[in-house]
Amino acid sequence: MANEKTIYGRITCPTCKTAGGVRITKDKNGHPFGFCDAKCGVQIRIGGDDYRVSEFNKSYPEIAAAMRGEPKKDLGSSGVGASVNADINPPPLKKSGLDLSNL
After folding, report:
1. Nearest alpha-carbon partner for 57 in 6, 17, 94, 11
2. What is the 8-class DSSP label of residue 57?
3. 37 domain-assigned
4. Of 23, 35, 60, 88, whose CB has the highest number of CB atoms within 10 Å?
5. What local confidence, expressed as pLDDT, does residue 33 receive?
6. Do 65 and 77 contact (CB within 8 A), yes or no?
């Protein structure tokens, strides 16, 4: 499968809001490129503008490091710095003061 692209990370889709729905690969110039393979199929062109690429790399440092070929950092059990997977498992919603589940 020569056409198969390496997925460097996943982010929440800005269109359909699916957590981890957008896979990040490299475009033909080696810049980040996003595609929502979870639901809506949106395509996100990040490359082509140095400012966009820089801001993306600041927002997703783990993806940027993976694209540079740097080894993953061991986060241990603390999970600090795990922004790549942080959107995949959001914390559970808090219950409101009115709970009717016991009725």
Report:
1. 11
2. H
3. yes
4. 60
5. 96
6. no
User: How many domains, the chain?
Assistant: 1
> Does 76 map to a domain?
no
CATH of the domain at 48: 2.20.25
Query: Strand runs (DSSP E) across the chain, as ranges?
Result: 9-11, 22-26, 32-36, 43-45
Q: Give the burial class of 18: count Cβ atoms within 10 A of its Cβ; 0-12 exposed, 13-18 middle, 19 or more buried.
A: middle
What token pair was written down for 9?
């990370």
Range of the domain at 28: 9-69
Q: What are residue 26's DSSP bridge partners? A: 32
- Is residue 23 situated within a structural domain? yes
Average pLDDT, the chain: 79
Cβ contacts of residue 15 below 8 Å, gap of 6+? 36, 40, 42
Q: Which of 58, 59, 29, 23 is nearest to 43 (CA)?
A: 23
pLDDT above 60: residue 94: no
Dihedral angle, C-alpha 77, 17, 38, 3, nearest 10 °: -80
